[in-house]
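USER: I would love a firmer grasp of how sequence relates to backbone shape in proteins. This is the protein in question:
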Amino acid sequence: MQSQLTYTSPAERPHHLPALQQLLNAAEHYFRHQARHNQSSNLRRQLTLLQQLHQHTVLLLPAAPEAAAPQDSRIVALRQFYLATEQEINSPAALAQLRLQLNKQLQWQKKLLRSQQLGPCHTVLLHFTASLQMAADQLALRLHH
């Protein structure tokens, strides 16, 4: 599927786009892995939804250049969680850790949205952030039951 957003010049491309795409790709891979290996059908559905949200958003964003993404410590930590965590989510502690990760990701995305440096990507990230917030809230409800 081809991205629906395009830029007429490199200067128009948001500088956070490569970092955002790297984060979304890492999260999509993580959630796909977790959904495949989770024994709980309810949690597996939630993990699949999270995987699909990240995958769909990557497809909607314009292709980022292969150049190194600008990195700050928050985005590095967020991405590293998804890349390094292979432990299955099968305990309340692991679920709580995932919920904390999603909260951090949402905080970073909301800050990025407030920065107004996303150009045409703003609407895509706005919708993704709202959907991710709802999915994270559903996961939080699971922690309390």
Remarks:
- The radius of gyration is 15 Å.
- Residues 15-62+72-143 form a domain with the Ferritin fold (CATH 1.20.1260).
